[in-house]
Design goal:
124 residues, 7-stranded mixed sheet, 4-stranded antiparallel sheet, 11 strands
Amino acid sequence: QVQLVESGGGLVQAGGSLRLSCAASGRTFSTLTMGWFRQAPGKEREFVAAISWNDRTTDYGRFAKGRFTISRDNAKSTVYLRMNGLKPEDTAVYYCAARSSVVVVNTALNYDYWGQGTQVTVSS
């Protein structure tokens, strides 16, 4: 089992930045592929970014490319999501997810563990 706890969400003005963190416990973090997803009210869960266990491979949703950066610190068992140039349409609950595989994928169904989510609200 893996426990994931997100933090760093909040209210920010358009154009601002936030850094989300996700602390993992319960299993060797360095064996996990990590991802971020988001879900806005009335919408399906959407892929944001993912990173391989050795951070050599990353993948981003189309809207995230150029604005968001995923990174990880295996020594701290933590994955980060740096978000710059935030827009009101980025408003959502952001979820951290973990996958017991070295293959980086962008579909929620392929992730085994989920955090409780952290709210990000971007005001115009």
